[in-house]
Amino acid sequence: MLKLPRHVLLPVISITIAAITLLIGALLIFQRGAEQGTSAIGGEFSLIAQDGRTVTERDLADGPSIVFFGFTHCPDICPTALFDIGQIYSALGPNRDRLKTFFITVDPERDTQELLNTYLSSFDPNIVGLTGSVDAVAQTMKAYRAFARKVPMENGNYTMDHTSLVYLMDRKGRFVSSLNFDQPPEELAKKISTYF
User: Fold this and answer.
1) For residue 118, which of 106, 103, 129, 105 has the smallest C-alpha distance?
2) Do residues 118 and 186 share a domain?
3) Residue 121 class from Cβ within 10 Å (0-12 exposed, 13-18 middle, 19+ buried)?
4) Residue whose C-alpha is closest to residue 95's, from 128, 130, 59, 64
5) Can you state the angle between helices 185-193 and 77-92, rounded to 10 degrees?
6) If DSSP codes are grouped into helix, strand and coil, which group holds residue 101?
7) For residues 88 and 192, is the Cβ–Cβ distance under 8 A?
8) pLDDT at position 40, please?
9) In 30-187, where do the E strands start and end?
10) Residues 62 and 159 in one domain
11) 132 secondary structure, DSSP code
């Protein structure tokens, strides 16, 4: 029988225990997710649309949805993504109304319903802007594992550093994948159509 010296045996035992602990933790997380029947991205929220109606996670049901976090003062990422989403709607043709898109502000202090309405009038009319209290927006961002923080500017104003992922959710409001706008809008429309 092979007998290992104590100074070799102790690190091997420690590494083995750590690996087993990590494995058990991963299995518990997987089991909890399976029991809840939800993915790690998405969940409950309650926000206000630019037309004043309340929108919750239940509004993601009955068809695929796009969820995107941004803000109206965004200089480039947000308007580019919103334009690209509009291209997907054009590529969907007669099926365009089967896709829902929610643009959720990460800057609720500035992005009122009125401002969202004015801002989104430059993009596809199927894109719905959502705002709410600072706490309600923070809760929604947490559910989607999104990030945002204020970045002060020299003139006393501020901009927002934020998650730029565009989430595709299935007809039950479950996360499918992020959208890659390097793909042609026709390909993205075809992918989204599989969730109708």
Assistant:
1) 129
2) yes
3) exposed
4) 64
5) 60
6) strand
7) yes
8) 87
9) 46-49, 54-56, 65-70, 100-105, 127-131, 148-152, 158-162, 166-169, 175-178
10) yes
11) -
Task: Output the CA torsion sign for 112, 127, 173, 145.
Answer: negative
Q: Tokens standing for 165? A: 């992922």
Written as six digits, the tokens of 187 are 């390909």
Name the residue with higher pLDDT: 3 or 187: 187
Residues 121, 65 share a domain? yes
pLDDT tens digits for 86-126? Answer: 999 999 999 999 999 999 999 999 999 999 999 999 999 99
- Domain with 5 in it: 1-37
In this prediction, residue 62 carries a pLDDT of 87
Determine the Cα–Cα distance for residues 58 and 44; give it in Å rounded to an integer.
8
Q: Considering the chain, what percentage of its residues have pLDDT values greater than 90?
A: 78
3-class state of residue 93 by DSSP: helix
If asked whether residues 25 and 80 sit together in one domain, one would say no
Tokens of 134: 């600072």
Q: What is the CATH number of the domain that holds 64?
A: 3.40.30.10
Spatial contact of 116 and 70, defined as CB atoms under 8 Å apart: no
Per this entry, what is the length of the chain?
Answer: 196
Q: The tokens 């334009």 sit on which residue?
A: 83
> Tell me, what's the pLDDT at 178?
96
Total count of domains within the chain: 2
